[in-house]
Write a structure and sequence with these properties.
- The structure is a single chain.
- It is built from 16 helices and 12 strands.
- The chain has 435 residues and is an alpha/beta fold.
- A hairpin with a 2-residue loop joins strand 11 and strand 12.
- The radius of gyration is 29 Å and the shape is elongated.
């Protein structure tokens, strides 16, 4: 009889234990009373903001430390509102590690709370939104879970978009980390950001170029690498010092408006793109645009090559300058085909070099051809200079390169050497004619 009564009691109480804890009087679990997480709960209670306690995701290696994934976390839930029918159940998570100074929460936490206020007031929210503050200390004993995995606020990484806000003390500009050594974030996730930042009069930039990440010259965010390795659509924003301090209310408003952008929830977004930032404006180069420019350049190179061959057939002898010019375009076309096979992100820099090579192939004035030959490698030289440690790292990369990488570097230099030979041939021909 006693066993039956105990089983009935456990059955009545079990639903309570698998729910997220929402009351300040709930057991604190392994979190100390004087921890930042407990102080956050008190702050939320003072501001009358409903909060829950649970696990953000059951895979611990998503977070900076194992403890951050195992320990209970506090999150604020904003359910989807007026979501269109037949739309996938997306989840937007503003992941905000806590940061404080002398018991006072700093910029990142206030931004997350501003995000909650802003998005709660919106009439239409296409995704279930969360402001999540991961716990990072005093994890439970090994093998023991404070909350079952069913309490995770994330069910499917594929339909989850994570916006991680890096803690900062005196922010003045935003840096969006948009890629890792293995892949970029989807293009649709980046497109709204420049417009939203301009509307809020907020300085922004994007992180290390993907080309440098792939070459090993730059290093991506470890947290972003872990999130992407688990299949999440993840973007990281870092606030850095700048001339005009960022208002947490403005940034919270920006993130809330970003969260309701329909474009960022598409599952067919391109991962092969590039972009240019000129005079404070960002121009995105889609995969289709890059391929169109590539086909145009290849068509130009093919026309000049065929013209040179036909001219050689008629005259039985083609001037050396013409041969060198055609060979330069042909070799650059071959390199662009190789770049297309490896990764399309390298093409814009090669296309810039190709246009200068094409100009050097068309011009007849030796001085102008010399100028084109000297400037042609410039787009490729600018690539490592885009990163603050890029050029030294680039030189180290060449110094440590094996035979295979050195062969690639030699092939890359070949078109520019051929154009220099064309300039030299034209100069010699001009001097001979004058004599």
């Amino acid at each position: 009889m006693i066993r039956l009564f105990a089983l009935m009691t456990l059955g009545l109480c079990f639903p309570y234990f698998i729910r997220s804890q929402t009351s300040p009087a709930a057991p604190a679990g392994p979190v100390p009373v004087d921890s930042p997480l407990e102080r956050l709960k008190s702050l939320l209670d003072e501001r009358q903001i409903s909060w829950e306690k649970g696990r953000i995701y059951p895979f611990e290696d998503v977070f900076d430390t194992a403890e951050e994934g195992k320990a209970p976390s506090v999150f604020i839930r904003i359910p989807a509102k007026n979501r269109p029918e037949n739309e996938e159940p997306w989840t937007f998570v503003l992941l905000c590690p806590l940061n404080e100074e002398e018991g006072k929460f700093l910029f990142s936490t206030e931004t997350a709370l501003a995000f909650v206020r802003e998005i709660t007031a919106m009439e239409e929210i296409p995704a279930d939104c969360f402001a999540a503050f991961p716990g990072g200390e005093d994890a439970p004993p090994e093998g023991e879970e404070v909350f079952p995995a069913a309490d995770s606020i994330i069910n499917d990484p594929f339909y989850t978009l994570i916006f991680r806000l890096e803690p900062a003390e005196r922010p003045g500009s935003l840096v969006f980390r948009h890629g890792t050594e293995s892949s970029l974030v989807q293009l649709d996730m980046l497109k709204p950001l420049p417009r939203l930042c301009n509307e809020e009069n907020m300085a922004y930039s994007f992180g290390e170029p993907a080309e440098l990440l792939r070459l090993g010259i730059a290093e991506s965010s470890p947290c972003l690498r872990r999130l992407q390795s688990q299949g999440f659509r993840a973007l990281q924003a870092e606030a850095r010092e700048g001339s005009h301090p960022i208002d947490p209310e403005a940034l919270g408003r920006l993130i809330a408006r970003y969260a309701v952008q329909r474009g960022i929830y598409r599952d067919d977004s391109s991962l092969h793109y590039n972009f240019l930032t000129l005079a404070g404006h960002t121009f995105f180069l889609s995969e289709g645009l890059i391929l169109t420019a590539f086909l145009f350049c290849n068509a130009c190179g093919l026309v000049w090559f065929i013209t040179t061959v036909l001219r050689k057939g008629r005259k039985h002898r083609s001037p050396p300058a013409e041969i060198f010019g055609a060979a330069a375009l042909f070799s650059m076309n071959a390199e662009m085909f190789i770049a297309l096979a490896v990764n399309i992100i390298y093409l814009p820099f090669l296309l810039g070099a190709f246009l200068l090579l094409l100009l050097g192939r068309i011009l007849k004035n030796p001085v102008l051809v010399w100028i084109c030959a000297i400037l042609a490698p410039l787009p490729l030289m600018l690539l490592p200079l885009l990163y603050r440690d890029g050029f030294p790292a680039y030189l180290k990369l060449l110094a440590d390169a094996g035979h295979r990488r050195l062969l690639f570097a030699a092939l890359l230099i070949l078109p520019f050497l051929l154009l220099l030979l064309r300039a030299l041939a034209l100069s010699l021909a001009t001097m001979k004619n004058r004599e």
